[in-house]
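Aim 2 progress update. The chain analyzed this quarter is reproduced below.
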Amino acid sequence: MTARDMAVTGLGLVTPAGVGVEESWTGICAGSGLAARDEVLAGLPVDFSCWVPDFDAAALLGPRLTWRIDRFTQLAMVAARQAVADAALDPESWDATRVAVVLGVAAAGGDTWADAYRHLAEGRVNAISPLTLPRSLPNMVAGEVSMDLRATGPCLTTSTACASGATALGIARDLLRSGSCDIAIAGGTDCARVPMGSAAFHRLGALSQRRDDPAAASRPFDVDRDGFVLSEGAGIVVLERPEHARARGARIRGYLAGYGASADGFHATSPRPDGDGARRAVEAALADAGAEPADVHHVNAHGTSTPQGDRIEANLLGALFRSGTPPVTSVKGTIGHTLGAAGAVEAAVTVLSLERQLVPPTANLNQLDEGLDIDVVTKAPRAHRMTGALSNAFGFGGQNAVLFFRAA
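Predicted structure tokens:
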């Protein structure tokens, strides 16, 4: 590690692979697609998604709190509580003014807005809940988590589309480096598996149309990929200044060493064909960490399963690692695309990969698309010696965020 690296001391995951870090890791390592027909999306052209199984928010958070917050906030709050417990931190005893909350979100309160619009269309204005705005505004996820954990330091929400969670981690790291806080609860959350989300992404041509076999629909880097699968979830990482973590005897699971961000400046939904924006974000993350491509032993790819996006990312990686790429994976084959949560969920999985020296497989990759010169792990997890890894996140608007982690 270097003096600029920030310690990862806690992880929290709520994903379609399971509620909890171990449950999610086990499900992701199983290497099977989890998409299925979704009754929430019944009757739509794309009527399948990935969702968190057996997520009983009332049991986990209590009915009073559950009623007050939208599902995207429920997911984040459960993951945040997990991460804080994993870090062996006690909100009753920490210096709350030195604890930051930085969370990323893209779609935010879809369920809440759908209910409000339905009442409005029916002419029942007085039926619209007075909690509509507090439940649905993007900033409220960070606000609610800060209230729940009694954290009164910097409290921010990032929104860089599918890069939101990774952006949040990068900004949290910067806050720690600046001395603004000692602890940062950072990550991302989203729940876009709502009718409007599915219909809108379908009209964009972004979703897989594989209605006859939803479980095989998300297939990053495969020759037959045809779009991504909507999902939901949350990923939370507790970051600390290393001296703070050591002083309290914390277990350090890894280090966030580098963060790079860039804009394509090209198109609202399509990435630059030459991958220049993504390349600059990768190079910035490595430079920030004082690392070289040779220090990257694994890449957790953005890999959404879209024809254009996967090719651009694969070409970027092939050019970066001229002598052959390190093992690459995309967890979206298993859990779909969690949008604003993706960068944080995948960052947590990257930390676990470094910790366990194991690269999860990419589900549904049966035949690598022609011309993609990358080493994608498939079928089963691969044991691999590694001390550094990249986690890529690219979003609509050409917003790119890349994180570089070191093993503890």
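The mean pLDDT is 96. The first helix runs from residue 21 to 30. These observations will guide the mutagenesis experiments scheduled for the next reporting period.
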